[in-house]
Amino acid sequence: MNLHVINTGNFKLDGGAMFGVVPKSLWERTNPADEKNMCTWSMRCLLIEDGDRLILIDNGIGNKQDAKFFSHYYLHGDYSLDQSLRQAGFDRSDVTDMFLTHLHFDHCGGGVDYVGDDRDRLELHFPNAKYWSNKDHWKWATEPNAREKASFLKENILPIQESGHLEFIDLEGNSPFSQFDIHAVDGHTDKQMLPKIKYKDRTIVFMADLLPSVGHIPLPYVMGYDTRPLITLQEKKEFLEEAADNQYVLFLEHDSVNECCTVKRTERGVKLDRTFSLNEIL
């Protein structure tokens, strides 16, 4: 099995929204903001190459929305989804499985395209792939609450089902992937799925939005975007203790500086151990 980091570009989000009730004087130590209080975040995905399967975990924001939409998010950087796939030696048609941790636009927008300049027609970006979600989260995304509605964009989601490529994972049953188990969490959004990848003698966990960056390791540092912040608090506490005890490698989707980290137990709770690139352990 081979793993490839797929960088799809950077965007910006308000620092206060990303750290909830934590004062800026504290969170800006790890995530400095610009003059508009915006912090830079990556949209870092992971490609698993294993036999005849090529599994992509999340796919970034895509390019379907209009200029007004993108003006809020300041897309920047030298990376793109297809460019990163080519650098890894693959084409989008090679992807066999598109695993979606959840259906917020910055995690799934790259999975569906307009057909050329025709904004009335949509097609899958990965034409040969199965797209994986779960029934509970799919219902949550397609019948959204008012708070999350702006994050669940129908043009990113409905074409997956209409194409016939949608598959649901039974979170109570066995994973359909031999490469990883799935850890489901509910604080950020209902039934977000985190792959726990078995690689050599390590466990690499794709953290998605349970832990966006190393700056979010302290327990109170919970995003304002989370629908159930107290549940996130408990889920993060339990997971970080498990990660420290088992020396999990935490793969960070949104940290613009650090690809991976480990954590350790201390007298003051679980803290950052070290940061490193994924290539250092491959």
Could you characterize what this model shows?
This protein is of the alpha/beta class and 282 residues long. The chain contains 8 helices and 14 strands. The strands form 3 sheets. It has a 6-stranded mixed β-sheet with strand order 1-2-3-4-7-8. Strands 9-10-11-12-13-14 form a 6-stranded mixed β-sheet. α8 links the parallel β11 and β12. The mean pLDDT is 96.
Nutshell version of this structure?
This protein is an alpha/beta fold and 282 residues long.
SSE layout and pairings?
Blueprint: E1 2-14, H1 15-19, H2 24-27, E2 38-50, E3 53-57, H3 67-71, H4 81-87, E4 97-99, H5 105-108, E5 112-115, E6 118-124, E7 130-133, H6 135-142, H7 154-162, E8 166-168, E9 180-185, E10 192-199, E11 202-206, H8 229-246, E12 249-251, E13 260-266, E14 269-276
Parallel strand pairs: 3-4, 4-7, 7-8, 11-12
Antiparallel strand pairs: 1-2, 2-3, 5-6, 9-10, 10-11, 12-13, 13-14
Features:
282 residues, alpha/beta, six-stranded mixed beta sheet, globular
**Morphology call:** globular
Measured between the Cα atoms of the first and last residue, the distance is 10 Å
Order of strands across the main sheet: 1-2-3-4-7-8
Q: Low-confidence stretches at least 5 residues in length (pLDDT < 50)?
A: none
Order of helices and strands: EHHEEHHEHEEEHHEEEEHEEE
Report the sheet-strand fraction.
Answer: 25-35%
Work out the helicity level: 10-25%
- Tell me the total number of β-strands: 14
Q: Which whole number gives the mean pLDDT?
A: 96
Mind summarizing the main beta sheet? Answer: 6 strands, mixed
Indicate the structural class.
alpha/beta
Radius of gyration: 18 Å
Number of helical runs? 8
